[in-house]
Design goal:
The protein is α+β, with helices and mostly antiparallel strands. It contains 15 helices and 34 strands. The strands form nine sheets. The chain has a five-stranded antiparallel sheet with strand order 1-2-29-28-27, with no helix packed on it. Strands 3-4-5-6 form a four-stranded antiparallel sheet, with no helix packed on it. The chain has a four-stranded antiparallel sheet with strand order 7-8-9-10, with no helix packed on it. One of its GO terms (cellular component) is small-subunit processome.
């Protein structure tokens, strides 16, 4: 599968690669696939999706299940079933097909317009009926409401054939000498035809009268375009009820609004070749126009190029699979091309695996490789002495350089650098020497950051490997080889601080274990400095002594923790004494303050208190707040500290609380007085 990219739009060519000849047996085809890598890697989306010589037209049925194509030689039509990914049937015809149309949802009703003025009808079983029209036909359209076929060709008349009555009706008389293309609007069924004089005539099928005339030849001539001869209409396509795209024989595409005589936009292909096909892509508001050399996709509002494709062979027809990003072309070659552009839409449901395939390719991007071609810059050409070839057919300009034949490149390189083989030979010898060195016993290369932690992990891996061999278990992945933890051994910001309080309290035996590792590190560094190739065992104590030491360490870990805590307290005392000395040595100088506008001066007490607090260390401030009761600090089981704060209340909050207290007291007194009065009244009634 070949991948190309233009304007950051990836295009996957699903028909790239060599095709096997039909006359080969299945056995020979399988043998070739085993031998040839290119044949084995190709993607054959639909089996035998090709014609014997060339293909002229390609269509998709309305239900999306069948793809039909016509070609030569001999003249034939082939139908491919997308659900089976293979050919369904093939029918040979008497003469070459100019164009054809699928009238039904599937392949059961097809109409062919042939070269010898013949119109051939096919049903599901095969050939059904054949008739002739008076003049040579070039295009036709089907009017669904009246079941009429409109034929245009080398005549000023438009012939009408009614399929319901089975007879020709009165033809439409036009002003044109000849007509090339025609189309019927799918919304209001307006019939439009493109003439050889560069005009578009619009007819109403209900009244059989002409309702409009557009002079496209005059509108296609702009300041930027260079036209030789009178442009005729070569392609025509409706989009919705109001838009219409017209292609000319000189390579321009004009987009019209039916309510205006002037085009909305004029797009030039700059090749001077007649436009063969026009398609509309509604999801991204694109127009896909094609001549025999290039397929261009551009925005219908701005005319800006979206992407383009240049197939190897000339293009005869383009078909966009509905509601997807798949594009098919009929070419001047046996193989019909299939392109998949994920930006335009998803893959059709019958080949949904293409989405997964392209996603995998995007996750693992590879450099684009062109078979038999080499990309070179202008500087490379000067080094090879081929700068004089710029502008010739041997170099093809592309982006900031050129493509040239790989054989010519190798010859020029041999001439420019005759000692290239010697360099290649030295490189191969060096690689073989490195391979032999890799088989020897190598030193353990430790990272620059966290060397002791890396050594600890290596030791633990060795123990786990021995344990897993005994138990016959799978080894777990190493942290040193894992990309997620790669930064921990490269970035110095992740260096473990062994002098921190938390580290020393959480690892009481780290000092003794680190001493052993430091010895090993020293030995390894000495061996690396000497450049020895075999790893020597470090001198040390026997395994029995080491095991006894480990047991002693396990017994005395509590004493180690106590020692560490004593050392930490002593260090804190020394730091406090140093800070007190610094505070005593510093002399206070008078300071002057400015009062802002709108503020009143109260006193220096608050500011002085705040300044004293700011000068004190965080530890002293915390102790002061502990005395006041606004802070509570406690040690956790892990060794860290936990602090709980009580927020200070502002003056407004205090005033509000005092007012609330007064209000509550007043309400209590009122309630007591009311209850006292009630009790007195009750007593008075009893006495009465």
């Amino acid at each position: 599968m070949q991948v190309s990219s233009l304007n950051e739009v990836k295009i996957y060519s699903l028909s790239a690669g060599r095709s096997l000849p039909e006359w080969l047996s299945d056995r020979k085809k399988r043998a070739l696939q085993k031998k040839d890598v290119d044949i084995r890697r190709r993607i054959e989306l639909i089996q035998d999706f090709e014609m014997p010589t060339i293909s002229t037209k390609i269509r998709v049925s309305r239900d999306g299940q069948y793809i039909m194509a016509v070609g030569t030689y001999k003249p034939r039509v082939r139908c491919f079933d997308t659900y089976q990914l293979s050919q369904k049937f093939e029918r040979c015809l008497d003469s070459e097909v100019v164009t054809f149309e699928i009238l039904s949802d599937d392949y059961s009703k097809i109409v062919f317009l042939e070269c010898g003025r013949f119109v051939e009808f096919h049903s599901q079983h095969g050939h059904y009926y054949k008739t002739r029209i008076p003049k040579f036909g070039r295009d036709f359209s089907y009017h669904y409401p009246s079941c009429d076929l409109y034929f245009v060709g080398a005549s000023s008349e438009v012939y009408r054939l009614n399929l319901e009555q089975g007879r020709f009706l009165n033809s439409l008389q036009t002003e044109a000498s000849e007509s090339n293309v025609c189309d019927i609007n799918p919304v209001h069924f307006l019939f439009a035809m493109g003439t050889a004089e560069g005009k578009v005539e619009c007819w109403d099928p209900r009244t059989r009268n002409r309702v409009g005339l557009l002079d496209c030849a005059l509108s296609s001539v702009t300041a930027d375009t260079e036209i030789e001869g009178l442009p005729s209409i070569s392609a025509l396509k409706f989009d919705g009820a109001l838009n219409m795209a017209v292609g000319t024989s000189t390579g321009q595409v004009l987009l019209y609004d039916l309510r205006s005589n002037n085009p909305l936009i004029v797009k030039d292909h700059h090749y001077g070749l007649p436009i063969k096909s026009i398609e509309f892509q509604h999801q991204l508001d694109l127009i896909i126009s094609a001549d025999s050399r290039i397929i261009k996709m551009w925005n219908k509002d701005t005319g800006k190029i979206f992407t383009s494709m240049e197939p190897e062979h000339d293009i005869n027809d383009v078909c966009l699979y509905p509601n997807s990003g798949m594009l098919m072309t009929a070419n001047e070659a046996p193989k019909m091309n299939i392109y998949y552009i994920p930006v335009l839409g998803p893959a059709p449901k019958w080949c949904s695996f293409l989405d997964n395939l392209t996603e995998e390719l995007e996750e693992n991007p590879e450099s684009t490789v062109y078979d038999d071609y080499k990309f070179v810059t202008r500087k490379d050409l000067e080094n090879l002495g081929l700068a004089h070839l710029i502008g010739s057919s041997l170099l093809r300009a592309y982006m900031h350089g050129f493509f040239m034949d790989i054989r010519l490149y190798h010859k020029a390189k041999m001439m420019a650098n005759p000692f290239a083989y010697e360099e290649y030979r030295r490189e191969k010898i060096r690689q073989k020497i490195e391979e032999t060195r890799a088989q020897r016993v190598q030193l353990k290369k430790l990272p620059k950051v966290n060397k002791e932690l890396a050594l600890k992990l290596i030791e633990e891996e060795g123990e786990e490997q021995q344990f897993s061999k005994k138990r016959k278990q799978k080894n777990l992945p190493s942290l040193l080889k894992d990309d997620r933890f790669k930064v921990m051994f490269e970035n110095p910001d992740f260096q473990v601080d062994e002098q921190s309080e938390e580290f020393r309290l959480l690892n009481p035996l780290v000092s003794k274990i680190s001493e052993k590792r430091k010895r090993k590190l020293k030995i390894l560094e000495e061996l690396e400095a000497q450049g020895q190739e075999e790893e020597e065992e470090p001198e040390g104590k026997a395994s029995d002594a080491e095991s006894s030491e480990s047991s002693d360490d396990e017994k005395g870990w509590v004493e180690e923790v106590r020692k560490q805590r004593k050392l930490l307290r002593q260090e804190e005392k020394l730091k406090r004494q140093e800070r007190l000395k610094e505070d005593q040595q510093t002399l206070l100088k008078p300071q002057f303050f400015e009062i802002k506008e709108g503020e009143e001066f109260r006193s220096f007490k608050d500011s002085a208190k705040k300044q004293k607090l700011m000068k004190k260390t965080l530890e002293d401030r915390l102790k002061l707040e502990e005395k006041l009761g606004t802070l509570n600090v406690s040690d956790t089981t892990v060794g860290s500290k936990q602090a709980t704060f009580k927020l200070k209340k502002s003056e407004q909050q205090r005033k509000q609380q005092e007012a609330e207290k007064r209000h509550r007291q007043e309400r209590k007194t009122l309630r007591r007085s009311a209850s006292h009065l009630k009790s007195r009244r009750g007593r008075g009634r009893l006495f009465h």
